[in-house]
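User: Reviewer 2 asked us to show a designed sequence for the structure in our supplementary figure. I'm pasting the structure tokens here. Could you produce the per-position amino acids so we can include them in the response letter?
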């Protein structure tokens, strides 16, 4: 079959069509002009970002939300280094993503030409695969492999460099077929072994997390939990894998874990971990499960065989994607649950108590009750609303008190990347405009990527952004007071008027300083976002002394000073 002669840029865009790409994010650069030209006649929507870090975060959010690789285009050198934060996030979060980087021409390679970087070395330990396409006739092959690698096994990021002379080169080459993600599945004998271990248990618990999940896998997991009366906890920033209103959901295992849930994990005699890596945040610094041999019997199911046994020597290790494993577990013959059935209600009651109003707000002295803010949100937002956040102490209000509606209602970075909140929220609203999207952002967080509010206005993405303004880098200040009490250094912020800044971008903006004012402000924000299809920002100004739901800076400082004096 004869194929027409095409430029490298056109071949690449045609390949993206074949693999089902509908949206790409990026910042334009002269190093990939031929791709931009090919996109001009394409049905692919190219979302123009304000900074490459925001573009990469948006692509990562797209990957989380859809399960398809997020696509990002950036230019060489500075563009690539800015985008690296999104690649790191995708790697630690097991999110499919493909980053395309413009590169100097092949005739300039290895001369340290203008903005030249060897991306294989730069991204070598940050991505699943890094390559450079030197010939236009090999573009379809490289693109097909990129999609295959990004989505198979443990999902993750792929980086492809595009020399600019290659993109204007013409070639006659056949296109490929669409990619097919590949996942391993449990052997029937492994499911039988798991069932036997469960039948012998007295205090089992299920932990959910990681990549590869879809709606069917979540449904199958729910069936498995219900038929075997199992308490289910979700790992750090994967709280949406089971509807939080479900009676078998008992909380999240991550930063600020419910002490009673932590004790329950430690005292369990069988932990069934489906999907998570069992990293530092999920294991409480490798204390909930002893390393390398846990005190509990451990079943570890993960999509990457190399992850299994890398930290924990589980009793049963199963290389499998979440859909393949949960599909078999849903049809597994139930076991006798009389030994632990009562623990589900007990653990659920512990969660309800943990989500009650914190003592620091019960006396009513604080003008703005952040717990009530979250309650007002849950009362006003639809069950399938998407909540996004980045990193910082402010996120504890979302993690501890908000009840997620199920797959996919939470977008948050397990690698703790500040700056994730706003771009991921904007991306979610662009991808799924019919759903309500609310972003939790700290003041320091917002200042890192808040310029993507301009992207939201340009694309009429009616995301609602709630900025928690306590005029400090709160998490670092908290640790500072614990370790160096009273010696504040490098953590105080002088912020702009966030509401006025939002208005300058063309968004709705207002300030809330009292509890009673938040619900009406949220109602106005929702009306603006839904009616005008434009973003809205609510700035919460509150006492920075209220650093977490459990403590104030004053109590932390006093405790640290007393410990030093003792």
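Assistant: Here is a per-position design you can include in the supplement:
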């Amino acid at each position: 079959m004869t194929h027409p002669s095409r430029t490298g840029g056109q071949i690449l865009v045609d390949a993206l069509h074949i693999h089902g790409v509908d949206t790409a994010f990026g910042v334009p650069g002269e190093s990939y002009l031929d791709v931009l030209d090919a996109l001009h006649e394409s049905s692919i929507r190219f979302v123009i970002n304000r900074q490459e870090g925001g573009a990469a975060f948006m692509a990562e959010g797209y990957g989380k939300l859809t399960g398809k690789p997020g696509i990002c285009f950036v230019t060489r050198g500075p563009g690539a280094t800015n985008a690296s934060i999104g690649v790191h996030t995708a790697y630690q979060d097991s999110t499919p993503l493909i980053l395309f980087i413009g590169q100097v021409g092949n005739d300039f390679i290895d001369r340290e030409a203008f903005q030249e970087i060897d991306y294989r070395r730069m991204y070598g330990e940050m991505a699943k695969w890094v390559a450079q396409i030197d010939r236009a006739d090999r573009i379809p092959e490289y693109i097909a492999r990129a999609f295959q690698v990004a989505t198979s096994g443990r999902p993750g990021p792929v980086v492809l460099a595009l020399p600019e002379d290659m993109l204007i080169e013409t070639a006659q080459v056949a296109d490929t077929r669409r990619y097919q993600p590949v996942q391993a599945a449990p052997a029937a004998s492994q499911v039988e072994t798991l069932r036997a271990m469960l039948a012998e248990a007295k205090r089992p618990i299920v932990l959910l997390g990681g990549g590869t999940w879809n709606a069917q896998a979540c449904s199958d997991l729910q069936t498995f939990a219900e038929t075997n009366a199992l308490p289910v906890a979700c790992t750090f920033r994967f709280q949406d894998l089971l509807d939080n209103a479900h009676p078998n959901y008992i909380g999240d295992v991550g930063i600020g874990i419910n002490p009673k849930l932590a004790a329950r994990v430690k005292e369990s005699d069988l932990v069934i971990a489906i999907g998570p890596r069992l990293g530092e945040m999920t294991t409480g610094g490798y204390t909930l499960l002893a390393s390398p041999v846990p005190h509990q019997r451990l079943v570890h199911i993960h999509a990457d065989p190399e992850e299994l046994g890398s930290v924990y020597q589980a009793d049963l290790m199963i290389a499998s994607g979440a859909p393949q494993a949960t599909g078999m577990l849903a049809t597994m013959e139930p076991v006798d649950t009389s030994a632990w059935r009562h623990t589900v209600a007990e653990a659920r009651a512990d969660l309800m108590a943990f989500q009650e109003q914190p003592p620091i707000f019960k006396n009513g002295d604080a003008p703005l009750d952040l717990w009530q803010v979250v309650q007002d949100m849950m009362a006003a937002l639809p069950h399938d609303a998407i909540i996004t956040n980045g990193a910082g102490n402010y996120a504890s209000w979302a993690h501890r008190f908000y009840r997620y509606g199920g797959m996919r209602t939470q977008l948050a970075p397990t690698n703790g990347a500040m700056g994730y909140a706003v771009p991921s929220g904007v991306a979610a609203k662009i991808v799924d405009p019919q759903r309500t999207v609310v972003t939790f952002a700290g003041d320091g967080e917002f200042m890192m990527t808040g310029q993507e509010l301009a992207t939201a206005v340009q694309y009429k993405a009616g995301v609602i952004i709630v900025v928690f303004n306590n005029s400090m880098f709160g998490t670092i200040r908290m640790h500072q007071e614990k370790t160096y009490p009273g010696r504040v250094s490098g953590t105080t912020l002088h912020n702009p008027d966030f509401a006025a800044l939002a208005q300058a971008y063309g968004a709705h903006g207002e300030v809330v300083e009292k509890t009673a004012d938040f619900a009406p402000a949220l109602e106005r924000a929702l009306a603006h976002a839904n009616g005008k299809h434009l973003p809205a920002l609510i700035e919460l100004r509150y006492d920075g002394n209220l650093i977490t739901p459990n403590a104030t800076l004053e109590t932390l400082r006093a405790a640290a000073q007393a410990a030093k004096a003792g």
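For the response letter, you might also mention the following. DSSP finds 22 helices and 20 strands in the chain. The chain has a mean pLDDT of 95.
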